[in-house]
C-alpha cells in the first residue's frame, strides 16, 4: 500500500478548475477498481491524502499521470505503508 500526501503549491487563482475535475474523475475510477482505498482533501485546502493499493510500478504510473502532477499543481510525498485495515474497510 502507498500513502501519499499532496500539497498545493500554486495560488488557487492560478489553477484551472478542470485539473481538479480530471483528478477527481480519475480517482473515482481508481476507487471503483479498488486501487484507491481512501482519499480526500484537507479541510484547510492545503492539499490532501490518498491511500493506494497496488504495485510500485502501477503506483508510479498512476502518480505520473495525475493531472495535478502533470500541471505542476501539487508536490507529493509518498511512503510504502504496511497498514492494518479495520474489518469495516475490509468488508
UniProtKB/TrEMBL annotation:
Pfam families: YCII. It comes from the Bacteria. PANTHER family: GSR2449 PROTEIN, YCII-RELATED DOMAIN-CONTAINING PROTEIN. Belongs to the YciI family. This is Uncharacterized protein. It comes from Paenibacillus naphthalenovorans.
